[in-house]
User: Fold this.
Amino acid sequence: MENNPQENQLNIELSEDVAEGTYSNLAIITHSPSEFVIDFVKIMPGVPKARVKSRILLTPQHAKRLMLALSENIMKYEQIHGKIKEAEINALPLNFGSPKGQA
Assistant:
C-alpha cells in the first residue's frame, strides 16, 4: 500500500500579527514532571521591570525535540556565519522576582 504524499501534508497558517514576531533577549525555563514552560522576556536597559512577552508550554518529549532541532540549526548557522560568541552569564540582571531559570 502506497502512502499518498498529499495525505501526510500539514498546512500551517501564519497570521500577519504572529508573523511579525516578538523580540526576546531572555528565556526563563521551568518544568514539572509533565511539562516544560518557556517564558520569553524582553529586558530594556535601565528599566527595573520586565514583562513576559510570550509563554510556550511543551511536553517533555517536545521540549527535547525543540532542543535537538535548535542545536542542529545553531550548528548549521555557525558553519555558514562562524561561531556565535556567548555573552557572560552574569551580564543580564536576573533579579525580577520571578523563578530563577536559564537563558
In short: Confidence is low (pLDDT under 50) at residues 94-99.
